[in-house]
Design brief:
- The complex is a heterodimer.
- Chain A is of the alpha/beta class.
- Chain A contains 1 helix and 9 strands; from the N terminus they run αβββββββββ.
- Chain A has a single domain (about 25-115), classed as Immunoglobulin-like (Sandwich).
- In chain A, the strands form 3 sheets. In chain A, strands 2-1-4-7 form a 4-stranded mixed sheet, with no helix packed on it. A 3-stranded mixed sheet of chain A has the order 3-9-8, with no helix packed on it.
- The longest helix of chain A is centred in the first third of the chain and has 21 residues, at about 1-20.
- Chain B is of the alpha/beta class.
- Helix content of chain B is about 20%, strand content about 25%.
- Chain B contains 6 helices and 13 strands.
- Chain B has helices spanning about 60-75, 95-110, 125, 130-140, 165-180, 210-215, and strands at about 10, 15-20, 40-45, 80-85, 115-120, 145, 150-155, 185-190, 220-225, 230-235, 240-245, 275-280, 285-290.
- A 7-stranded mixed sheet of chain B has the order 1-2-13-12-3-4-5, covered by helices on one side. In chain B, strands 6-7-8-9-11-10 form a 6-stranded mixed sheet, with no helix packed on it.
- In chain B, α1 links the parallel β3 and β4.
- In chain B, α5 runs parallel beside α6.
- Chain B is globular and about 50 Å long.
- The chains are: A alpha/beta, B alpha/beta.
- The complex binds copper (II) ion.
- The site of copper (II) ion (CU) has 6 residues of chain A, from loops.
Chain lengths: ~120, ~300
């Protein structure tokens, strides 16, 4: 039992090192916003892989909030808003528009899926 | 955060409501015979009427508000005043339609027998034009008033589309509170939760913690709000926060499902999960949830 745990831990740290090597280059993920959706609204990434979200808007000011990562920013039309993230644990994390934008605002959300 | 430990649920004959009693003015000494003394009073809270909404979540949307007005007019004990904690109207991009909805809403609620009615905006009323149309119809978006020794403070956390009170309003609040004594009775009315109820659903106020911090030195503070379309009770320290039911559709309990989509309409039980609330103010505050129609 003890030995198996030890092996698993070693394997885990080897993977971690590999991920850290790959981690040198952040992966860019582009997400565009318009009333009342994000595109794409489902984004998948790997744990330990640094990300840069590149956020744009096609119509008006929207918000982008991801409470689990402590992230919130406005998305202003005509400019790229870049947000750096380091996903450290796997899971499914919600993001949503937090600048009221009209009848449908409450449905404007998406999911960041972090795979182990 | 400590949850209230003084929940007394009582069935009240004839009202089909549920009473929630708690030491909500905890700094004041409870008086067993507190009811009906001079200075005690009732008010009724309406919230999230969303006039102008049409959709599957409430096929009866055109009549729900009128029914609730009739029910409140029929209360044996009429309240001294009525408050509307926001989302009077359902939002629209069309500034003309927004004003038509506000006008019609105002006509419907003018049928209330009680004439002391206080309004507050929700994001559906005020976020798209920073409260411009709302102010034309209902006046200031944040204000104070006093009633029988209770100081009411209406806070606006919706005219800024990013759901902020803003530094200017916080300074105004601080200045108002400076004139209060630590044991004054204070009722705060607002639309969104001032605390982080469910951040993943945006059930927060961006700078709500600053308002709570300003209120903390006061021993007798109760907050009534809306936005989440359901009855909900929460304590931040000694301050109680009570969310009201909506009059358009109910939303799921915080975090109970992945999305905050409206609960499905139940044709067998129209008005389920909707209603208004009677609040009796004495040494304690006692809440009775009222149905849309008395049945
Ligand atoms: Cu938006």
């Amino acid at each position: 039992m003890y030995r198996r745990t030890l092996v698993a831990l070693l394997a885990g740290s080897a993977l971690g090192a590999a991920a850290r090597l790959a981690a040198d280059q952040p992966v860019e993920i582009r997400i565009s916003a318009k009333k009342f959706e994000f595109h794409p609204n489902k984004v998948t990434a790997r744990r330990g892989q640094p990300l840069v979200l590149v956020l744009t808007s096609e119509d008006r000011i929207h918000g982008f909030k991801m409470p689990d990562f402590g992230v919130r920013t406005d998305i202003v039309p005509g400019q790229e808003t870049r947000v750096s993230l380091m996903p450290e644990k796997p899971g499914s994390f919600t993001f949503f528009c937090d600048v009221f934008c009209g009848d449908g605002h409450e449905d404007m959300d998406g999911t960041l899926l972090i795979e182990a | 955060m400590q949850h209230t430990d003084r929940r007394d649920f009582l069935k009240l004959a004839g009202l089909a409501g549920v009473a929630f009693t708690a030491g909500l003015f905890p700094g004041r000494r409870a008086d067993a015979q507190a009811s009906d003394r001079a200075g005690d009073f009732h008010f009724v809270q309406f919230s999230d009427t969303h006039w102008g909404y049409s959709g599957a979540a409430n096929p009866d949307a055109e009549h729900t508000l009128e029914k609730a007005v009739t029910t409140v007019n029929g209360l044996a004990r009429q309240p001294d005043l009525i408050v509307f904690t926001g989302d009077l109207t359902h939002t629209t991009d069309d500034a003309k339609v927004r004003r038509e909805r506000m006008k019609r809403f105002r006509e419907i609620v003018s049928a209330l027998s009680v004439k002391d009615v206080r309004f507050m905006p929700g994001e559906h009323d005020a976020s798209l034009d920073r409260g411009e149309a709302y102010k034309e119809f209902f006046g200031a978006t944040h204000y104070t008033f006093d009633h029988k020794g209770v100081h009411f403070i209406a806070l606006d956390n919706v005219s800024d589309p990013a759901a902020k009170l803003g530094d200017e309003q916080l300074a105004w609040l601080a200045a108002d509170l400076k004139q209060r004594k630590p044991d004054d009775r204070i009722i705060v009315l607002t639309h969104r939760p001032l605390f982080d109820l469910q951040p993943q659903w945006d059930w927060t106020t961006a700078d709500g913690a600053k308002a709570i911090e300003l209120l903390m030195p006061f021993k007798n503070v109760v907050v009534f709000y809306g936005h989440i379309h359901q009855e909900h009770h929460h304590m931040t320290g000694h301050i109680a926060h009570h969310a009201a039911n909506s009059l358009i559709f109910a939303l799921p309990a915080p975090g109970s499902q992945p999305k905050r989509a409206p609960l499905a309409y139940d044709a067998a039980m129209p008005g389920k999960g909707l209603g208004t609330r009677d609040v009796a103010v004495a040494d304690k505050v006692t809440l009775v949830e009222l149905p849309v129609t008395k049945g």
